[in-house]
Design brief:
alpha/beta, transferase, about 25% strand, 6 helices, about 220 residues, about 30% helix, 5-stranded mixed beta sheet
Length: about 220
């Protein structure tokens, strides 16, 4: 097994290689505006660090969000392209699940990432492997009662200490955690998600109202 994992659902552009036993190379850069520019060089970098070629990869793992439309589609389109070119399966993993796995907390806790617009993408977890609720997007104040008293991880939790007073790192997801979680699940015979995006809301860019279509005479 050689899994190439990547995620662009948060400001982190993160890539890792996992050989079925451990992470053998990884790269993470935080830059919310340069996902498309940074992702492929990061893939080249981790392959070079591991001394391997892309055609050695036996599977792709992609973070499926939730996340902003533009950033998220960069990673998923790249993952789909690699899968088609190499003829290998592409597996999806919820980005919040990757953060939960990296946090390695005992007992109930919350993962929350920054959804912009003064909102967070979030979910509750029983432990680092067990999500209790579907991913959702809400204003922090609106979910205060549901997360009260619980530890929280992720950039969204760190941004809103009034709602998440027990917030701490990791701030962003790492592909190393995604790859490790995926490898663990695959080894146990568990099914992973389809590599389809969890947007949870419409993209910011929309056709203006009263838009006039100009047709040639």
């Amino acid at each position: 097994m050689l899994l190439l994992a990547l995620d662009t659902a948060t400001p982190a552009v993160t890539v890792a290689l996992h050989d079925g036993t451990d992470v053998i190379a990884s790269s993470s850069q935080v830059d919310a505006r340069r996902h498309g520019e940074l992702l492929l060089p990061a893939v080249d970098r981790v392959l070079a660090e591991a001394g391997l070629r892309l055609d050695a990869v036996t599977g792709i793992v992609a973070g499926i969000g939730p996340g902003p439309y533009t950033g998220l589609r960069v990673g998923l389109m790249t993952a789909d392209t690699f899968g088609l070119a190499l003829g290998v399966p592409v597996h999806g993993v919820c980005t919040l699940d990757g953060l939960a796995y990296a946090a390695d907390l005992e007992g109930p806790f919350v993962v929350a990432t920054d959804a912009r617009r003064k909102e967070v993408y979030w979910a509750r977890y029983a432990d680092s492997r067990t999500r209790l609720t579907d991913p959702a997007v809400d204003r922090p104040a609106d979910i205060a009662g549901q997360v009260a008293g619980l530890p929280a991880v992720g950039a969204g939790a760190l941004l809103y200490p009034d709602t998440f007073p027990k917030a701490h790192e990791p701030e962003h997801v790492s592909a190393a955690a995604l790859a490790s979680l995926a490898a663990e699940k695959l080894a146990a015979g568990e099914e992973l998600a389809e590599p389809r995006p969890l947007y949870l809301r419409r993209p910011d860019a929309q056709v203006p109202k009263n838009y006039k279509v100009v047709t040639p005479k």
